[in-house]
Design brief:
Strand content of chain B: under 5%
Helix content of chain A: 25-40%
Distance between the termini of chain A: 51 Å
Shape of chain A: globular
Number of helices of chain A: 9
Number of strands of chain A: 10
Helix content of chain B: over 70%
Largest sheet of chain A: 6 strands, mixed
Structural class of chain B: mainly alpha
Strand order of the largest sheet of chain A: 6-7-8-3-9-10
Strand order of the largest sheet of chain B: 1-4
Largest sheet of chain B: 2 strands, antiparallel
Number of domains of chain B: 1
Distance between the termini of chain B: 30 Å
Oligomer: heterodimer
Shape of chain B: globular
Radius of gyration of chain B: 20 Å
Structural class of chain A: alpha/beta
Order of helices and strands of chain A: EEEHEEHEHHHEHEHEEHH
Number of helices of chain B: 12
């Protein structure tokens, strides 16, 4: 379904701030599989997600989705195939526009837009039904600006919007990180339901080990722009949050050893 | 009374300017100073074509198209070359000054002896109502012609307002509003935001060009200086309209922009009548807009916001 081939990206090349964010990433994601991306800050997991979404173009490598090479497509051209939910609940919806208008916009994701009325009667009925299923009492507030809703409500609606037309790929970028634990749990549950219901191929970035263990059928752990661990199938089922924490510690220890070794070498040779 | 009707008519003609400003300033949050060049551009195109013997309707449509083009150029400079919005507008506005001089051929072209759209409104009105004498309203005399002109302009503004409303509620129009409101979100939903900004600024300036063309025909001349201060003028109208109506939904905002222009023009007419020095007009307008922009922030800080946030 999704093929990432030797993907590399360096930001601020040739300056002091040069960062090699993606360092030759290779990975193949099966159709309807749910992949969780883990990693420390700056490991490249969000960068990988953004590369797939088309926020920037990679220096090297290819991205293929459903048989189409999307490497050089711009962000809005890829939107036909990809649904996205952002970390920041404010990024996924247009605050000054109504709930109905936001959802109507999403109902045309990647399609040609016309001069027809945006919120037609049958669209309205349909979105009312879908919003009713959220159980948040939003169906009576269709004509309120979406900016008046809480972060959790907006994130739930963004999820609904991203999956309104079944995407080839769903990208979730720490989409519960900015929510309080109770709301986060609700949004996570909704996420799971939506993905299971439509068998969506999903990439999800998270910081929560518990989420990583409970959700999805594969875990990719990134470090310094590379995939360092890949757990799928039974390995993934057996994995516990503690195991993941231990792996993180190990990565960190290795990193520190590297620094010490570097210091030793510099002391001896300079 | 005829002063009032004149002020009304100009207020309505300039309502097209405030609709254009609404489009750039409220939809895209972009104070598009191209407006000052475009309104003159529209006036220049219409005036020169009418003097050259073209039918006034065609001349006015060309002005509308010229305005669209100017807006598109600003949009391209802003999006494709990533130049700051205000600077893009200033570049096009400055360039338009020379273009306008070329189009006009000199700094001022009178239209007193020509048949303009406004005169056509007058004669069509007389044909329909069969009445050409003076009419007495509230005890003062007005010419029937000026009333006919007003009626036609009112119709025109209603049509323009409805078209703009319909467009902004359409699938493309909502995508355009979302582009101004949250570009990241609408890109993720497959909309080319650069295209939306370019087209949107085109529509905005088309309205402003139309406003200029009608203004020149109503006042009987086109002048290369007539655009100066028009941006603030349009902003003032949009702001007054919002404060007046208080509702933030699209239909009310569009109606607000129209009424704002009307009321602003009436205020100006009254102020000039009771002895305001015309030289101070732009200073006072600028101060007014500044107050309108700053007041809500001060009120917010001092927590006196209750019901006054829209002022």
């Amino acid at each position: 379904m999704l093929d990432i081939i030797n993907l590399s990206k360096t930001f601020n090349r040739g300056t002091i701030n040069e960062v090699k964010s993606l360092n030759g990433i290779n990975c193949h994601v099966e159709e309807s599989s749910f992949v969780v991306l883990l990693g420390t800050n700056g490991s490249g997991k969000s960068t990988l997600l953004n590369a797939v979404a088309g926020t920037f173009l990679p220096d090297e490598g290819q991205i293929k989705l459903a048989g189409i090479n999307i490497t050089r497509l711009s962000e809005h051209q890829r939107a036909r195939y990809i649904g996205r939910v952002f970390q920041n609940p404010f990024l996924g919806t247009a605050p000054e526009m109504t709930i109905a208008e936001n959802l109507a916009l999403a109902s045309k994701r990647g399609l040609t837009r016309s001069f027809n009325w945006a919120v037609k009667k049958h669209v309205r009925e349909e979105l009312k039904k879908k919003i009713m299923a959220l159980n948040m009492g939003l169906e009576d507030r269709l004509d309120h600006p979406i900016g008046m809703l809480s972060g959790g409500q907006r994130q739930a609606l963004t999820l609904l919007m991203a999956t309104w037309l079944k995407p080839e790929l769903l990208l979730l970028d720490e989409h519960t990180a900015a929510l309080d634990p109770k709301t986060a749990a609700k949004v996570i549950q909704l996420t799971g339901d939506l993905i299971r219901h439509s068998h969506l191929t999903t990439l999800m970035v998270t910081h929560s080990m518990q989420q990583a263990v409970n959700m999805g059928d594969r875990i990719l752990m990134l470090h310094q722009g590379r995939i360092v661990y890949d757990f799928g199938g039974q390995d993934k089922q057996r994995l516990k949050a503690g195991d993941l924490v231990a792996l993180f510690d190990e990565i960190r220890r290795k990193e520190q050893i590297d620094i010490h070794v570097a210091e030793l070498i510099s002391q001896q040779y300079i | 009374m005829s002063l009032l009707i004149g002020a009304f008519t100009i207020g309505l003609i300039l309502a097209l300017l405030s609709l254009g400003m609404f489009m750039s300033y409220r939809v895209f949050n972009f104070a598009d100073i191209t407006a000052e060049g475009t309104i003159t551009f529209g006036a220049s195109i219409a005036a020169s074509l009418i003097v050259a013997g073209f039918p006034p309707v065609l001349a006015t449509l060309c002005a509308l198209f010229g305005g669209f083009l100017a807006g598109v150029i600003t949009g391209i400079i802003h999006t494709k070359f990533e130049i700051n919005g205000l600077l893009s507008g200033i570049l096009v506005m400055t360039a338009l000054y020379s273009v306008n001089l070329h189009v006009l051929g000199r700094s001022n072209v009178p239209l007193m002896l020509e048949t303009t759209l406004v005169q056509q409104f007058e004669s069509v009105g007389q044909g329909i109502f069969g009445f050409a004498e003076n009419i007495t309203i509230f005890g003062s005399m007005v010419t029937a012609g000026s009333l006919y002109i007003l009626i036609f302009i009112i119709l025109l503004i209603i049509i323009a307002g409805l078209l703009l409303y319909g467009f902004l509620r359409s699938e493309i129009g909502t995508a355009m509003r979302a582009t101004g409101n949250n570009p990241q979100m609408i890109r993720a939903l497959g909309v080319n935001t650069q295209f939306m900004i370019i087209t949107g600024l085109g529509i905005s300036n088309a309205l402003i060009g139309l406003s200029g063309a009608l203004l020149a025909q109503f006042q009987g001349f086109a002048d290369v200086q007539m655009g100066i201060g028009m941006l603030v003028w349009g902003l003032a109208s949009v702001i007054i309209g919002e404060a007046l109506i208080g509702e933030k939904t699209l239909g009310y905002l569009i109606a607000g922009a129209i009424f704002g222009s009307l009321i602003f023009r009436l205020l100006v007419a009254v102020a000039l009548r009771i002895g305001l020095n015309p030289n101070d007009l732009k200073l006072i307008t600028a101060v007014f807009v500044l107050i309108a922009l700053v007041l809500p922030k001060i009120l917010k800080k001092t927590k006196l916001t209750g019901g006054l946030t829209n002022a």
